């Protein structure tokens, strides 16, 4: 049995209307979820396929970190899909720095976050002090590197160029030249 903490304001999303989301996760991941809505703790007990059961905590964590349940359940559809969480606050000195860096990751009118999604194919969600990524390993890697560039203070133009270069690498299949 595993336990995952879910923020209070995401418990309702995890449960869904009349428990529908909870039941869908349980049936697709072959687990039993026991949600303690008082403290946000979710106990996950595998009752079927152990491989699916190992993915279930990531599905619950992803919903808890701001992903729509449908996006989080994509982790169950493809064994190559992965979920990664970047703690933005580990790269900040104080609340103001956190606000500024979060703003840089989101971009004007959400454009930077959108570009990360469009150019990699991964889903990207910024929630609280974290940035979550769901995608194929190479997509997640590109988003992670772009996020690190932004958090390290790189100009947006340089990050967008990097994303476009990587987008071309990802979509052109095998590429003899490795552009880093």
From TrEMBL:
It comes from the Archaea. Residues 1-81, 82-152 form the K Homology domain. One of its GO terms (molecular function) is RNA binding. Pfam families: KH_1, KH_PNO1_2nd. Keywords: RNA-binding. PROSITE patterns: KH_TYPE_1. This is RNA-processing protein. It comes from Haloferax marinum.
């Amino acid at each position: 049995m595993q336990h995952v903490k879910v923020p209070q304001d995401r418990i309702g999303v995890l449960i869904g209307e009349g428990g529908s989301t909870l039941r869908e996760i349980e049936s697709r991941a072959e687990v039993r979820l026991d949600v303690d809505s008082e403290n946000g703790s979710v106990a996950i007990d595998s009752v079927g396929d152990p491989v699916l059961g190992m993915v279930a905590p990531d599905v619950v964590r992803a919903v808890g970190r701001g992903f729509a349940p449908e996006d989080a359940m994509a982790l169950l559809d493809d064994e190559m899909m992965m979920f990664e969480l970047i703690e933005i606050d580990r790269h900040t000195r104080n609340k103001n720095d956190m606000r500024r860096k979060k703003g840089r990751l989101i971009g004007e009118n959400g454009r930077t976050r959108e570009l990360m999604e469009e150019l990699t194919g991964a889903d990207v969600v910024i929630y609280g002090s974290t940035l979550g990524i769901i995608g194929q390993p190479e997509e997640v890697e590109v988003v992670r590197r772009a996020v690190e560039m932004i958090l390290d203070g790189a100009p947006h133009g340089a990050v967008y160029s990097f994303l476009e270069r990587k987008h071309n690498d990802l979509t052109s299949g095998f590429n003899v030249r490795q552009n880093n």
